[in-house]
Each structure stands twice: as structure tokens, then as C-alpha cells.
Amino acid sequence: MLAHTPSTIKLTQIKLEMNIKPVKTEKDYKEAMERLEVIFDAKPGTPAADELEILSVLIDNYERSNFPIDLPDPIEAIKFRMEQMNYTNKELAEVIGFKGRVSEILNRKRKLSINMIRKLHEIMQIPTDVLVQEY
After folding, report:
1. Each residue of 36-59: pLDDT tens digit?
2. How many CB atoms lie within 10 A of CB 111?
3. Under 8 Å CB-to-CB from 116, ≥6 apart: which residues?
4. Crossing angle (nearest 10°) for helices 114-124 and 74-85
5. How many whole angstroms separate alpha carbon 93 and alpha carbon 101?
6. Distance CA 44, CA 32 (A)
7. Closest CA to 87 of 126, 127, 129
8. Fewer beta carbons under 10 A from the terminal one: N or C of the chain?
9. Structure confidence at residue 20 as a pLDDT band (50, 70, 90)
């Protein structure tokens, strides 16, 4: 049996006031999203702000479980980051160290080496877990 400490009593009171429940189904998710819209602009430090924070965590957990987002393709990630940084192929060659191989890499005719991955991560801030994927 659960002992009623001040923290469990407070949690029970918050749960009752907020009417928070787990988000397990599509229906729960839709209801949680609707409630989130209502309390979205809650003032910090208010019960509504606490509810907003808890509801956001529950919604995020449901979305991660039911709508996972795959990592981007390594080559597409490089192209996207080049565009963001306004890099040319010549500038990319300065990053990876091989001027003649940029075209081959971007056209998927050559694989990235571990040294290229390290440099792309360090200089262009592309996550290594994206770059080491098969393509």
C-alpha cells in the first residue's frame, strides 16, 4: 500500500485538479491536443502552466512511440547543411579534404570515410549518427 507522504498527496491533488491521464490511444491524443490548445498561453507558475508542461510530456511520449522520425539520409543531410551554410562544392572539398571526390560522394558513387565523417561533424555540425548510416 502506498504511504501518503506530502509529495504523493500533492501529486494526487494535482492529478485531480488537472484531470491528467495517460495518452494511449488516438482518441486520447486528440483530446490532449485539444486541451493543449486551450491552455497553450498559460502564465508560468499557474496550475494551467503545470498542466501544460505535463500534457506536453505525455503528448511528446505518444508521438515518439507512434510517429517515429527516421534519421535523414547522409548525403541529403550533407546537401541540406551545404545549402544552409551557403557552401559550394569547393568549400565542401576543403572540409572533407578531397576536391576530386566531392562529386562522387554527392552522387553516391563513393562512400564517406571515417575521417570525412569526423570532419563533416566537426566543421558542419552534422550528427555522426546521421553520417554513419548506410546509403
Report:
1. 999 999 999 999 999 999 999 999
2. 12
3. 96, 97, 98, 105
4. 30
5. 8
6. 19
7. 126
8. N
9. confident
- Kindly list the structural domains of the chain, giving each domain's residue range(s) and its CATH number in brackets, ordered by start: 6-66 (no CATH), 74-131 (1.10.260.40)
Residue with cell 511528446: 60
pTM of the model: 0.56
The DSSP code sequence of 24-51 is -SHHHHHHHHHHHHHHTTPPTTSHHHHH
Most confident of 3-7, 19-23, 128-132: 128-132
Spatial distance between the Cα atoms of 65 and 49, rounded to a whole number of angstroms: 24
CB 75 within 8 A of CB 129: no
Nine-digit cell at 91? 568549400
Query: Is residue 81 over pLDDT 90?
Result: yes
CA distances to 7, 8, 36 from 2, rounded to whole Å, are 12, 9, 31
Rg of the chain over all Cα atoms, to the nearest angstrom: 24
Per-residue cell: 10: 500533492
